[in-house]
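Weekly structure sync, notes
Attendees: PL, DS, HV (note-taker this week)

Item 1: alcohol dehydrogenase (NADP(+))
DS walked through the input record. Source organism listed as Streptomyces kronopolitis. Sequence as pasted into the shared doc:
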Amino acid sequence: MTHTSVAAYAAPAPKAPLERITIPRRALGAHDILIEIKYAGICHSDIHTVRAEWGDGGNFPIVPGHEIAGVVAEVGAEVTRYRAGDRVGVGCFVDSCRECENCRAGLQQYCTGDLGMVGTYNATGRDGETTHGGYSTHLVIDENYALRIPESIPLDAAAPLLCAGITLYSPLAHWKAGPGRKVAVVGLGGLGHMGVKIAHAMGAEVTVLSQSLRKKDDGLRLGADHYYATSDPATFEQLAGTFDLIVNTVSADLDLNAYVGLLRTDGTLVQLGAPERPLPVAPFALIPQRRSIAGSMIGGIPETQEMLDFCGEHGLAADIEVISADRINEAYERVLASDVRYRFVIDASTI
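Item 1 (cont.): predicted structure, written out as tokens:
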């Protein structure tokens, strides 16, 4: 394949509505695969980025989308991992330095080399060009940065696993969620609903901490053992010192001190959501019970494949609402209003 143009949806400027454009895709290299994108999930990170809420300006026009599921359409001359027709996914990055200690260990998301982790969109690739994401019809990627999607997972419901799924699987696996461990998931949204499913499948005792009880029936259906409203002060008294692990999926300004108080001795609160402002924590929320606050960001290629295989084995996928591309701007507003159960997925055939 020679260098080509494909249809996509992009934000032309910060806070501007997304619109249909054409973008270039690089010629197929020896180790590249051409993916015909079938579905792309809408992640809150997409909204933060196109609205310039993380303060980095951005390389506009931005084509978002890092929850990508599709089918291999063509392979480069030296590709060995995939063939045309294979079901594949692409997550939050499309390249890394490949040489640093973290890359060699399969932790490409924490690449410390000069190139760094190359984001699927709004980043600069090794060719010096801006990367464009999954709100498009096709993508070219090195075979080593694509993932195999198990046959047991529908492609539309698999797309959100490439960000939401791995964002929760990685900390749950790292902090050893499993039998005998009490895990709390803060927020039952696109991230949180996958956290409940995965933690339950790992064998942990799972509690949802949500602002209200509005989604309680959903939470219990998804695998939660308990569900509490954080708007009720009694929740923090009742659950004090309870959890081994809390994963905070929300991007709102929370009183982390209150949540840290829910940890047992040696418990950890893992911050996954990225609010605009710093979240202050009092030292004596941590010191007396040797509690920790940590962060976690997606997973590397090996762990992401492990997550997909785990979901395939346990029958897990995202709860989705499939939309046509002309409804992306409406979907953004609904995400901000928490009006989705639980992930919008764009049908790429409508782009």
